[in-house]
Design a protein that fits this description.
- The chain is mainly alpha-helical.
- Helix content is 73%, strand content 0%.
- The N and C termini lie far apart (46 Å).
């Protein structure tokens, strides 16, 4: 358990370093005013694709591709993007920011736990819209995971993603390189977690939410809880380490503070406490419900799944990003401050 918590602490520390967990940073991506998160993820996934292909070819790691459940991935991705835009956090960064004292993140966690519980209860009735399952398909499924062709594809895609990150940074015109270092560190950490000698699994976060609230709500005998019990427990320990990282770093830097209204929220939505509390809970609920429909989130699908060139994860990333940007355009509109 200590090893998992340490990995979670490093995950949290790397994200804090690049300010990838901040509400202003993530909501800035929704309005396309801040590309920090996109650039860091492109570097992390690009580097991870190459490293993971090496590890797997040497027998040091295995693929853990999420199944491509068509309806769940598309509808869940859309819901996830909406929740992420409104909330301004993703499942992992919620916990890190809560450790820094962000009250909206704490409320978002409560909303996320509720979303996880409702998903468990409603799963039998919504199974029909989640399918069909097209299996665990990835680029390796088509060309072979140990083939030279796959390695060349992995390197080409990885290099292109890193190039795209630098291209976006040039267009954005920012001198700060913390996004780059944070992306590189995350791109190193996830393949380490994949190693058979370490955890033999990818990084993930959203399963922790239904796992926790299902336990609290007494749903431990449900088929869904039984299915997610092992990964859910792992992610709770992992996110505990990330929570500690957020708290410790904030204390050391003298930046710990309880804050509900962030500058970008105030710019677009005003300073109403009730409004921020409502949307934090709602955003967290939608975020986790969508993540569980899709079977993953930013860390489990986009980061870890992207490194595996998993079709389910690439499709999820596409729909989540489009939904994030469309929601951001509609939700964060100047002149619509209704305080």
């Amino acid at each position: 358990m200590l090893e998992i918590a340490i990995l979670g602490f490093l995950f949290g520390a790397f994200i804090v370093y690049g300010r990838l967990n901040k509400y202003d940073t993530i909501s800035g991506l929704a309005t396309l005013e801040d590309l920090t998160v996109a650039k860091a993820l492109l570097v992390a996934v690009g580097l991870g694709i190459v490293l993971l292909s090496f590890e797997i070819s040497l027998g040091l790691a295995s693929y853990h591709v999420k199944p491509f459940v068509l309806g769940g991935v598309i509808i869940g991705g859309i819901a996830f993007g909406i929740g992420m835009a409104v909330l301004g956090y993703c499942p992992g960064t919620l916990v890190i920011s809560a450790g820094e004292g962000s009250l909206d993140a704490i409320i978002g966690i409560i909303g996320g736990l509720s979303g996880g519980l409702v998903f468990t209860i409603s799963l039998p009735s919504i199974k029909g819209i989640l399918g069909p399952s097209l299996g665990k398909v990835s680029a390796a499924s088509f060309v072979g995971n140990n083939s030279l062709l796959y390695f060349l594809i992995a390197v080409a895609v990885g290099v292109f993603m890193i190039y795209l990150a630098f291209f976006l940074n040039k267009r954005e015109g920012r001198a700060d390189k913390k996004w780059l270092y944070s992306g590189v560190l995350l791109g190193l950490l996830d393949p380490i977690v994949f190693l058979k000698a370490v955890e033999n699994r990818p990084i993930g976060a959203s399963t922790a939410y239904p796992y926790l609230f299902d336990r609290i709500g007494g749903l431990t005998s449900s088929p869904y809880f039984i299915k997610i019990q092992k990964p859910g427990h792992w992610e709770v320990v992992f996110l505990t380490g990330a929570l500690i990282a957020g708290f410790v770093i904030a204390i050391v830097k003298g930046e710990f503070s309880f804050k509900l209204i962030h500058s970008r929220w105030e710019k677009y939505k005003g300073s109403s406490v009730l409004k921020r509390v409502f949307y934090s809970f709602l955003g967290g609920f939608i975020l986790i419900f969508g993540a569980r429909m899709a079977g993953g989130c930013t860390s489990g699908h986009i980061l870890s799944g992207g490194m595996q060139l998993a079709i389910s994860s690439l499709v999820f990333a596409l729909f989540a990003f489009l939904s994030l940007v469309i929601t951001g355009r509609l939700f964060y509109r100047k002149g619509h401050n209704n305080d």
